[in-house]
Design goal:
With about 270 residues, this protein is of the alpha+beta class. Among the domains are: about 90 residues, Alpha-Beta Plaits; about 80 residues, 2-Layer Sandwich (Alpha-Beta Plaits), CATH 3.30.70. About 25% of the residues lie in helices and about 25% in strands. It is built from eight helices and twelve strands. It has a four-stranded antiparallel sheet, with helices on one face. Strands 8-9-7-12 form a four-stranded antiparallel sheet, with helices on one face. A two-stranded antiparallel sheet has the order 1-2. The longest helix is centred in the first third of the chain and has 11 residues. About 15% of the residues have low confidence.
C-alpha cells in the first residue's frame, strides 16, 4: 500500500508533455528532487537495471559518478546519498541504466575496482527492488519496539478526534487570518517531547500521511547534535494541519507522549 516513488501522466497534446518535462524536471519537492521524462514502453530488457554502489570516495560528485558508469550504457537516473546533518556524501549511490544488460556490464567491469581518488575498492551490485519492504522497514522502526507494538498515527487517528471532522472543515475561513501557526507560506506545527535520537525522517513519516508537508526541523543541541526534545513541521493546508494536530497530540512514540500544537509566539524560537 506504499508509494514506490514514481507515477505516470498522459497528455493529449505532445507539446504539453514537452512543456511539463521542461518545467518540472529537477523540481524540488519536500526532501526530493523529482525527475520527469518520457516514459519508456515496458519490456523485460529494461527491468531490474538499477545498481547500488557503495565505498565511493566522499568527494565524488554525482556528475563524476555518471562519468564513471556512462561508458557502459545510457544512464536514466543517478544519485548520491547525502548525510542531512553534515551535508557530506555517505559514499553510497544509485545508477539506473536504460537496459539491464548495460547494468550487468557495469557490475562486471567496476565491482571491486578503485576509481580515481578512491582508497578502497567500490562495491557494485543490483539494488533491491522498492517493493522489498524498504519503506516498510522505516515504519517498522517507528511504530514497533521489542516490548510493545505501537499503532501508526493513522491507526490512532480514529480513536483520537478531539472534535468531529466537520468542525475542522468549518475552520477553513480562518486560513487567511494572521493567527498562531500561520507563517504566510504554510502552517507551522510545534512538536514537543521528542527523544534525543529523533531526526527529521521521523517527522516526515508521522505528518506525511495527513497532507502536504513542506518542511520539517528537529532542534538539536549545538554540542552533542542530539535532539533537544522538540521540532517544527510546516504544512501547506490548514485542514490537514488541524487534522494532524488532532490526531498526533497525545500520540505515544516509543516511551514518550508527544505534545503537538500550532506554533505560537511564546513557543521556543
Amino acid at each position: 500500500g506504499q508509494s514506490l516513488g514514481y507515477g505516470f501522466v498522459n497528455y493529449v497534446d505532445p507539446k504539453d508533455a514537452e512543456k511539463a518535462i521542461n518545467t518540472l524536471n529537477g523540481l524540488r519537492l519536500q526532501t526530493k528532487t523529482i525527475k520527469v521524462s518520457y516514459a519508456r514502453p515496458s519490456s523485460a530488457s529494461i527491468r531490474d537495471a538499477n545498481l547500488y554502489v557503495s565505498g565511493l570516495p566522499k568527494t565524488m560528485t554525482q556528475k563524476e559518478l555518471e562519468q564513471l558508469f556512462s561508458q557502459h550504457g545510457r544512464i536514466i537516473t543517478s544519485r548520491i546519498l547525502i548525510d542531512q546533518v553534515t551535508g557530506i556524501s555517505r559514499g553510497v549511490g544509485f545508477i539506473r541504466f536504460d537496459k539491464r544488460i548495460e547494468a550487468e556490464e557495469a557490475i562486471k567491469s567496476l565491482n571491486g575496482q578503485k576509481p580515481t581518488g578512491a582508497t578502497e575498492p567500490i562495491t557494485v551490485k543490483f539494488a533491491n527492488n522498492p517493493s522489498q519492504k524498504t519503506s516498510q522497514a522505516i515504519l517498522s522502526q517507528l511504530y514497533h519496539s521489542p516490548n510493545r507494538r505501537y499503532p501508526s498515527p493513522l491507526a490512532q487517528q480514529a480513536q483520537r478526534f478531539r472534535f468531529p471532522p466537520m468542525a475542522i472543515d468549518g475552520m477553513t475561513s480562518l486560513a487567511g487570518i494572521n493567527i498562531p501557526g500561520h507563517a504566510g507560506t504554510g502552517w507551522c506545527i510545534f512538536v514537543y517531547n521528542l527523544a534525543p535520537d529523533a531526526d527529521e525522517s521521523i517527522l516526515w513519516q508521522m505528518f506525511g500521511p495527513f497532507g502536504a508537508v513542506t518542511n520539517v526541523k528537529v532542534i538539536r543541541d549545538f554540542n552533542t547534535n542530539k535532539c533537544k526534545g522538540f521540532g517544527f513541521v510546516t504544512m501547506t493546508n490548514y485542514d490537514e494541519a488541524a487534522m494532524a494536530i488532532a490526531s498526533l497530540n497525545g500520540y505515544r512514540l516509543g516511551d514518550r507522549v508527544l505534545q503537538v500544537s500550532f506554533k505560537t509566539n511564546k513557543t521556543h524560537k
